[in-house]
Specification:
alpha+beta, single chain, 12 strands, 2 domains, four-stranded antiparallel sheet, Rieske Iron-sulfur Protein, five-stranded antiparallel sheet
Length: about 350
């Protein structure tokens, strides 16, 4: 929670998560090195340094792919939601591995000449008009800069000072970074590899991640369009009370692209904005725990009737007026100021007994 800025507090969950991540990365690189040394053609000896550069690069791409898969997977099934909790740790680990790849490649390929290695990176290959000979290293450097900015601003200090919308917009740069990395790998393989395994595996991975995001986007678009047809005298019709899972929410679209999360709890209905104050996380995908709406991403909590975080925290989110008429839940699309108390809609007894 964001009661006040504090230095990062490590806990057992984070330490165990980071330890497992380090172990997985080390094992991945080790296996890559061993396999790479074994599959060389007869009479050829692999350079261990070059192989390590490739291992670190493939590890970076794999970690970034996992990061991009977590979000849509969590929207498909709540079983993946715990993976969101420490996603920023995974992002920082990705940057660390990318730094090792970038630093080692820069020293190995660009430190032996008279030019500064960074200058050499940009001027050593001027074939910008050739696809097979395109200076792929420049694309990798651009992706590395984006990962650096994201890792440097991953702490809640920056989130609080930049604001959640600005912070989220900044971290959406992960998508162009991923595209740059894809072209970096594919064009690099075209220049240095006779085998097509790297381009094919990279393309398949990129297509799979793109399809996953398109599928979840289509699901949300279909749900939003279904909700748009349910309107009653300026209010948005959500459906019957029992259409809302107990202690959970139904997410409905609002004008101007906003969304509202309508929760059912203790035979009551309340509605709040779907965006968490922390990272704009989807509150409607969370649930009510100990009387508070709990964000599925990092556990930030808000009371459903006034959108205020429990003491000592002071975060506030917008609430919406709710009523039940003719057995249907209706929400006023006009938000109340953050922290405004609204009376929950009480579910009639015959309807609550039915659920």
């Amino acid at each position: 929670m964001g009661h006040q800025y504090k230095a990062i507090q490590w806990n057992k969950n984070k330490i165990v998560y980071d330890l497992y991540t380090v172990i997985v990365v080390v094992v991945f690189i080790g296996v890559f090195m061993v396999v790479g040394l074994q599959i060389q053609p007869t009479g050829h000896t692999a350079d261990p340094v070059v192989l390590m550069i490739r291992a670190l690069g493939v590890a970076t791409f794999t970690l970034l792919t996992v990061i991009l898969a977590v979000g849509p997977l969590a929207r498909i099934s709540p079983r993946f939601s715990p993976m969101l909790y420490n996603r920023r740790h995974l992002g920082v680990m990705t940057f660390i591995v990318a730094s090792a790849h970038f630093g080692l490649a820069l020293l190995w390929y660009h430190s032996s000449g008279p030019l500064n290695p960074l200058v050499s990176l940009f001027v050593s290959n001027p074939l910008y008009d050739s696809i097979p000979g395109f200076p792929f290293e420049v694309l990798g450097f651009a992706a590395f800069l984006i990962l650096f900015v994201m890792a440097a601003t991953s702490h809640d200090f920056w989130l609080n000072n930049l604001s959640a919308p600005a912070w989220k917009a900044l971290h959406m740069l992960v998508y162009p970074a991923y595209v740059l990395l894809v072209f970096h790998i594919v064009l690099g393989a075209l220049m240095t590899e006779k085998s097509v395994i790297y381009p094919i595996m990279t393309a398949v991975t990129f297509i799979s991640i793109s399809a996953l995001h398109l599928y979840t986007g289509y699901r949300e678009w279909r749900a939003d369009n279904g909700m748009k047809s349910l309107k009653a005298k300026g209010w948005i019709e959500i459906g019957a009370p029992d259409d809302i899972p107990n202690m959970r929410a139904v997410i409905a679209p609002l004008p101007k692209g906003d969304r509202v999360a309508v929760f059912r709890y203790d035979n009551k209905i309340s509605a709040v904005t779907n965006a968490c104050r922390h990272q704009n996380g989807p509150l409607g995908e969370g649930r009510v725990i100990d009387g508070c709406i709990t964000c599925p991403w990092h556990g930030w909590q808000y009371r459903p009737d006034d959108g205020v975080s429990p003491p000592p925290f002071t975060e506030k989110i917008a609430t919406y007026n709710v009523k039940i008429e003719a057995g249907r839940v209706l929400v006023d699309p006009k938000p109340n100021p953050p922290g405004t108390r609204t009376e929950p809609a009480i579910i009639p007894e015959q309807e609550s007994v039915a659920t």
